[in-house]
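Dear Dr. H.,

I hope your travels went smoothly. While you were away I took the liberty of generating a structure for the chain from your last submission, since the lab meeting agenda had it listed for discussion. I wanted you to have the full record in hand beforehand rather than looking at slides cold. The sequence, exactly as received, is reproduced here:
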Amino acid sequence: MISTLLSRTPRGSDGDPAPRLLYGADYNPEQWPREVWEEDVRLMREAGVNLVSLAIFSWARIQPSADVWDFGWLDEIMDLLHAGGIGVDLATATASPPPWLTTAHPEILPVTANGETLWPGARQHWRPTSPVFREHALRLVRALATRYADHPALVAWHVNNELGCHNVYDYSDDAARAFRDWLRARYGTLDALNHAWGTAFWSQRYSDFEQILPPRLAASHPNPTQQLDFKRFSSDALKDHLRAEREILREITPEVPVTTNFMVMGGTKGMNYPDWAAEVDFVANDHYVVPGPRDRDELSFSANLTSGIASGRPWFLMEHSTSAVNWQPVNVAKRPGELARDSLLHVAHGADAVCFFQWRQSAAGAEKYHSSMVPHAGADSDLFRAVTGLGATLGSLAPIAGSEREPARVGILYDWESWWASEQDSHPTSLLDYRREALDWYSALLDLGIRADLVTTRADLSRHQVLIAPVLHLVTAELAKELTRHTEQGGHLITTYFSGVVDENDHVWLGGYPGALRELLGIRVEEFGPLLAGDTVELDDASTGSLWTDRISVTDSGTEVLAHYRTGVYEGRPAVTRRAAGAGSAAYVSTRLGVDGLTALLPRLLAPAGVTSELPEGARGRVETTVRSGPGGRFVFLVNRTDDTVPVPGLTGDVLLGTTGADGSPVLGPREVAVLRQTAG
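The corresponding predicted structure, in token form, is as follows:
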């Protein structure tokens, strides 16, 4: 828990943990001469930094060769940071094996599906299932934990770094052996595996576990359930490495919380983070903005989803950027105000720590053009002044620390296995984008000024009166029952095309689509109608659909047709339906409507639940609102999504951040954030 981390930071004059938000960055002092270190600590204090992540890529410096260790420099910087009142999130340094290790043991290097070796020269060049790598990595972890167990600067452990960022899928012989062991544990018998994988197709039936391989490059499409299981296995293999490092840390330093940085952003989908969340003491995440239309909607979406993975509890923003990154085709600098707005939007969604990559901008290496808290221009720069200003702002928001996200009435269900399964090959369309569809629904709710939570299938779904489940492709019998129970007890389900189609083995639910959800929705689809790229259909509610259509037949007298297709091969057939189910309802949207179409449709879909915006009319769509609650009060965040000044009349509370108009209500300048504290309850 973040509270455990806070309890290890420097204490206030009364001896109690100082309530505050954490602020800092990855710190890489080994890149700089010794004389820079004291200047770094001085500038950190000036900027309000109280926490840094240390030694993330320091293996080669800590262990220059197999039997030589060099802790002197790390001892010194740990002491300097502690003297400056700065806590250390100490990394296990296992993310990037040193050259001496890969030279002696090239068998630790990952192998692609094509059989190509990924060689040293970058980072994360290791196999998650390599016993040789595991032995050397755990030896390093034990040495670090033993040496720094009692160091007063140590406030948390940082396992590896961005596990799976570059090595989530390894097809080596080590991976093949581990995959077979994983399959034995999952299925028990070959008969069970052969059934799950549907190996009667294409003469794939296995008579011995040793015949099974990862889905390497094949003559045609590999077995789809084999592919899905390999995705599950690959996430589990990384999770197993996380556990292995964590267990040593807990053995030696049981009071020090352990985390690793997730990457809930963009297309990063190989790691099943809801499944990993229970393995860490607090959830941490990295996020980087990819400039483009609605780029801050994606930031909000990712921060919201991180909160969902953390079950609404406070989490740690381990990395984001002060300005431009180095790895995009064009690396756009942030505009004035965006550094603060981006950071505070994460806080609005539950982050109790705001950290950047990195503290001081590198002079050499692949990330030398990646922005930092101290840029190449030095402390006398607008960027460092913005960094210092954010530090002061976070200091003023100290009462928020420890508060949790207040549940919204609307939840968007985000399911990793549906993401994996829906985008595999040999499907009706290769153009489907699971995350894009979910983000469209989220953006539409933002445009309507309606709060929504991103939730996973591990959450208590009954907390949300409306549950939106875009492309919920993989539905187990248990989940189908849970969704039915939710609606019959007064919940309102909204789902979309290509939902309810397969079970956990990627077997089609027979009898017509949407399979496991067919009876709940009161419709039947005999055949999918995917659209070619660029093709669209018109609906009779004036909206336009793309990507997909369905040939829908209504099968229940209680099913209402909210919109029909006006054009296309399914002209005149239902396009959007809703069925009353017990005390609730279940709606189906059979085409991709995009943000504008969903913004127009959602008020009708939300009407049975009585969900409307909590914002005044002039602020709806222009301001995003989130709420955190705790013993210190109810904290309402207002984030200006526009480049205009936006008044938000009618809201009251103590103003922790922002300006007010003549009537005392908040007025948001371009890209500004306001925070109000209201009495809890």
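Two observations you may find useful: The mean pLDDT is 96. DSSP finds 18 helices and 28 strands in the chain.

With kind regards,
E. W.
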